[in-house]
Amino acid sequence: MIADSQPTSQKTLHQDCDQQLSLRTKREYYRALIERDVGYDGIVYFGIKTTGIFCRSVCTARKPKFENCEFFNSTRAALLAGYRPCKRCQPMSFPNGPSPLVKQLITAVETQPDRRWTDRDFVELGIDSSTVRRHFKQRFGMTFVAYARARRIGVAVQQLRQGRGVLSAQLEAGFESGSGFRDAFAKILGAAPKGFQGLVFKSHWIDTRLGPMIAIASDEALHLLEFTCRRGLERGVERLKGRTKAAIVPGTNPILESIERELNEYFCGARRNFETPLMPMGTEFQLRVWNELGRIPSGEVRTYSQQALAIGAPSAVRAVARANGANQLAIVIPCHRVIGADGELTGYGGGLAIKKWLLEHEGVTLIKQSD
């Protein structure tokens, strides 16, 4: 049981070694394998004794019996135990990472962001256009054509902000038709290019060992960082657009480059605190709660009632919990460091499996579940 008056440190639940897991935890993991639960992808790896391979939770191969499984929380542990990576689910790669085709085309867009892509271009690359469409819809929720067009509009906005004329911005962004440029600009940004002074944020996908995250930033600060598996993510992005009146286009900037670098360092265990400028959007009460979250050191946890007491509102425990749930800057504003008064993990937008992993990665130990 956890005392409700001080930071808590408890006995660990997960270790690299299969023998240190409780039977209850092993059955939880086995269920994730049978159900191909994406929430455990990158969190636990499954060694199959009968084949000598290890897999991710989402592997589509025939499922083994429970007694033929070993469970590991890192690819390193599975490799050291003598297992080799599954060729089907490729556990050494990022969970839900981009396909080689997506990587190839994103690189092409960033190399030549003003390029107007046609089906002929795909033919020259030996790529089927319907395959391109499917891969991009799966990864970004939009077609490649829509992605590339939005990227071109981002180029035009940059030109306009540098004082270039509309025609110059149009041509620099690769639009031959003035009407086509104006229509695309208005559709994506909600305004005409002439005299445009609106806010434009850049969005960027960051692959992590727990799955992809989406980051949205202005040139000054990071506004959103979420796991793409989070429920209600699209509504959260729409709320951000509504509050800021900003258009969001694919691309990158120094803020996004900074958070990607810091996340890579965090997941490698080389960083505990983040320095990328943040600009959370919320009510006065939410901002107080989020500011207090930032005071929880890495490797420690608080309870909701401790958080309520810390902001001077001891009776507002439920409101504090709701504010935690409304946080749109995962990991960097560490709402995962708040747990229930009894020491149990409570809701987390990215899923409880991710919350467990983040806490244990930071050195927090959790109550061992009974067999």
Overview features:
371 residues; alpha/beta; 4-stranded mixed sheet; 14 helices; 10 strands; flat; disordered N terminus
Count helical runs: 14
- How confident overall, as mean pLDDT? 87
Main sheet properties: 4 strands, mixed
| Contiguous runs where pLDDT drops below 50 for at least 5 residues | 1-16
Evaluate the radius of gyration: 23 Å
Shape: flat
Estimated share of beta-strand residues: 5-15%
Blueprint of the fold:
Layout: H1 23-34, E1 45-48, E2 53-55, E3 69-72, H2 75-80, E4 84-85, H3 100-111, H4 119-124, H5 129-140, H6 144-161, H7 166-172, H8 178-189, E5 199-208, E6 211-217, E7 222-227, H9 233-244, E8 246-250, H10 254-267, H11 284-293, E9 302-303, H12 304-310, H13 317-325, E10 338-339, H14 352-361
Parallel strand pairs: 2-4, 5-8, 9-10
Antiparallel strand pairs: 1-2, 1-3, 5-6, 6-7
Helix pairs in contact: 6-7, 12-13
Notes on the protein architecture:
- The structure is a single chain.
- This protein has 371 residues and is an alpha/beta fold.
- Helices cover 40% and strands 12% of the residues.
- The protein has 14 helices and ten strands.
- It has helices at 23-34, 75-80, 100-111, 119-124, 129-140, 144-161, 166-172, 178-189, 233-244, 254-267, 284-293, 304-310, 317-325, 352-361, and strands at 45-48, 53-55, 69-72, 84-85, 199-208, 211-217, 222-227, 246-250, 302-303, 338-339.
- The strands form three sheets. Strands 3-1-2-4 form a four-stranded mixed beta sheet. A four-stranded mixed beta sheet has the order 7-6-5-8. A two-stranded parallel sheet has the order 9-10.
- A hairpin with a 4-residue loop joins strand 1 and strand 2.
- The longest helix has 18 residues, at 144-161.
- It is flat and about 65 Å long.
- The chain starts with 22 loop residues before the first helix and ends in a 10-residue tail after the last helix.
